[in-house]
Design goal:
Layout: H1 3-23, H2 30-41, H3 46-53, H4 59-68, H5 85-100, H6 106-113, H7 121-146, H8 151-156, H9 166-180, H10 184-201, H11 210-219, H12 225-244, H13 260-281
Helix pairs in contact: 1-2, 1-7, 2-5, 5-7, 6-7, 9-10, 10-13
């Protein structure tokens, strides 16, 4: 069992329990049991994990496409799910929230997309569990097996405060999106984007004096001398790593990074510092 699976095991059990209860629910209490399923999705640590690994999706466009497939006959609608698991889960969880919040009618949805073949409201509930909730729960379990993310990133990725600099925010967003991708080349790209963001961040406070800008950023973290020295040492070390290894510079005298796990380590290390600096700079407020 991976570290991520171990952390999320109780939440996954709660999710399965909610799914089982929904499968046995009557039409009259299906809404409340679905709300319980959503509550598990939106509770930590599962909420933070999903926030870290799910891909951004355009739910409104997907839903418009789904509605366009429906005809006059009951059960004539079709749901076209993307092949990518992270995108699929993002759409499925959004759909469940829309139904739980009554933004999409449960009875109309089940009639159009989960029709069991005969007129039984309880059968519609069971069919919804079969078509939507069972695949969703399975896919979430598979995502937890896919690649372990440490608790820090599960909780913090996707919740960085905005910096006020559009270029920096775009670099950070691109880095975290690429890091969620399981492809080894995406990990390398994520580290490169994060080091680009680091260089941009270092000039944020004083564009024409990077050294002064860094000092202002570090001073904003703490006035305690020992910890202040520690983070300054870390900032210098991470800058040197970017110059020494094949991250941002590709001259022949740069040291290549040999393993995917090394990219993971470097990403975690720099992300932690950027997270600290941005939160200190904004007083701890999230975007």
């Amino acid at each position: 069992m991976s570290q991520t699976e171990s952390i999320l095991e109780p939440a996954l059990r709660d999710l399965v329990d909610a799914l089982d209860d929904f499968s046995r629910a009557s039409f009259q209490n299906a809404d409340s049991v679905l709300s319980r399923f959503i509550y598990v999705l939106d509770s930590e640590p599962l909420a933070g994990f999903l926030n870290a690994v799910l891909s951004p999706v355009d739910f409104d466009a997907w839903w418009a496409q789904a509605k366009a497939t429906g005809g006059s006959m009951v059960g004539s609608g079709s749901l076209h799910w993307p092949a990518d698991r992270a995108e699929r889960v993002a759409l499925q969880t959004t759909l469940c929230r829309q139904i739980a919040n009554s933004k999409i009618s449960f009875i109309n949805f089940t009639h159009q997309y989960c029709y069991p073949g005969y007129n039984s409201l309880s059968a519609h509930v069971q069919k919804f569990a079969e078509v939507i909730l069972h695949p969703l729960t399975r896919d979430i379990e598979r995502l937890t097996e896919h690649r372990p993310l440490p608790p820090f990133l599960i909780d913090a990725m996707g919740r960085l405060p905005t910096s006020g600099d559009a270029t920096l925010d775009a670099l950070l967003g691109d880095a975290t999106r690429k890091f969620r991708d399981s492809a080894p080349t995406s990990r390398q790209d994520a580290v490169e984007r994060l080091w680009d963001a680091w260089e941009r961040l270092k000039s944020l406070e004083a564009a024409n004096d990077k050294r002064l800008s860094v000092q202002i950023l570090l001073d904003g973290v703490t006035t305690e001398p020992s910890f202040r020295k520690l983070i300054e040492t870390e900032a210098r070390a991470l800058t040197e790593i970017g110059n020494q290894f094949l991250i941002r510079h590709f001259e022949s005298n740069r040291t290549p990074i040999a393993k995917d796990e090394h990219f993971d380590y470097l990403f975690h290390r720099l992300f932690a510092l950027i997270h600290l600096l941005l939160f200190s700079r904004t007083g701890g407020s999230e975007a």
